[in-house]
Amino acid sequence: QSTNKKILITGGAGFIGSHVVRLFVNKYPDYHITNLDALTYAGNLENLYDIEGKPNYNFIKGDITDVAFIDELFKREQFDGIIHLAAESHVDRSITDPLAFVRTNILGTVNLLNASKSNWQNNTQGKRFYHISTDEVYGSLGDSGYFTEKTAYDPNSPYSASKAGSDHFVRAYGETYKLPFVISNCSNNYGPCQFPEKLIPLFIHNIINNEPLPVYGDGNYTRDWLYVVDHAEAIDLVFHKGENTQTYNIGGFNEWKNIDLVRLLCTLMDERLNRNQGESEKLINFVKDRPGHDLRYAIDANKIHKELGWSPTVTFEEGLEKTIDWYLSNPKWLDHVTSGAYQDYYIKQYQQD
Ligand code: NAD
């Protein structure tokens, strides 16, 4: 393992990115980790208060679509590796504002690729561009079958189309310019610090506040769920041990129909909040389906398991318990993100003068 590696992690103030930043900063004291994030509504430095001030870590506020800024940053810092997570990530938002997704997910990724290419042109030894992507690029499955790394792309939402586009650009830069890259496509993540627009934290928040739980359609949509720390560990492994030009699918071997997941969450929350069993379930409210809604996603994660030895370590029950515990013990975090107050945190921490 080389020392003094300079790693850029984009989107490190977001949900998954913050877990990846924490893992790398704590596990690799010899590396220098730069977290670059625009701090959109989804980016929150409160996710990382525990590693602020560590000597191997720094945060930079900036937009990955800003050509001059990214070019200057890459020239100055001479990164060895990029772990690229910055993205617009919420499917519902992509339906109302697709261009925001094209801008960050496609233009932003190409801008980072260009900066990597021009910096590494003479020497790509030990360098790596790692794109973090989603299983949603593969489209939808019927009742059986799994997405493998060979499944053809078939995205259905503006979000998944933008992630598919960025995956294609990364692969094309590998072919055309010999840029060393890896890609991983992961299923739905859950865990601490997830913005409460996504299903699990939204429903925890609504159950706490006795608000309706909006379930799309008949609730039969099926997703595979993975605890976010397991994903961060897979990212560490792929970054260090994955083979250039390869894709790795990452999943939890853990499929749930939405309605069953919501019922399980209600049961766990009733126990935790000392409510009568069945009380939270009364909040379930079936709502009009999302357009282009994919019926089922399921990941075949055998390649990363066989080639890199990765398996998820946290069971769904444990992961949900940890997640619920975290949200119940961090009411301020929830208040701040739902009120937008975490923006003030940035100003307090980083713009005191
Ligand atoms: P998130 O929305 O929580 O975080 C995204 C981060 O990117 C935020 O901190 C935001 O401020 C930052 N960002 C957005 N636009 C930016 C820009 N123009 N410049 C710089 N920073 C910008 O997302 P997440 O759920 O943590 O997802 C991270 C990555 O993982 C995404 O690429 C997503 O597609 C992928 N992914 C997510 C899941 C999931 O279940 N959440 C599953 C598979 C893959």
From TrEMBL:
Annotated GO biological processes are:
nucleotide-sugar metabolic process
InterPro entries in the cross-refs: dTDP_Gluc_deHydtase (IPR005888), NAD(P)-bd_dom (IPR016040), NAD(P)-bd_dom_sf (IPR036291)
> The NAD(P)-binding domain covers which part of the protein?
8-323
Molecular function via GO = dTDP-glucose 4,6-dehydratase activity
User: What cofactors does this protein use?
Assistant: NAD(+)
Enzyme Commission code: 4.2.1.46
Q: Which family does it belong to?
A: Belongs to the NAD(P)-dependent epimerase/dehydratase family. dTDP-glucose dehydratase subfamily.
- Enzymatic reactions: dTDP-alpha-D-glucose = dTDP-4-dehydro-6-deoxy-alpha-D-glucose + H2O
Show the CDD domains listed in the entry: dTDP_GD_SDR_e
Q: Which UniProt keywords apply?
A: Lyase, NAD
Q: Which Pfam families match?
A: GDP_Man_Dehyd (PF16363)
Which Gene3D superfamilies does the entry mention?
NAD(P)-binding Rossmann-like Domain (3.40.50.720), UDP-galactose 4-epimerase, domain 1 (3.90.25.10)
Protein name from the UniProt record:
dTDP-glucose 4,6-dehydratase
The EC category is lyase
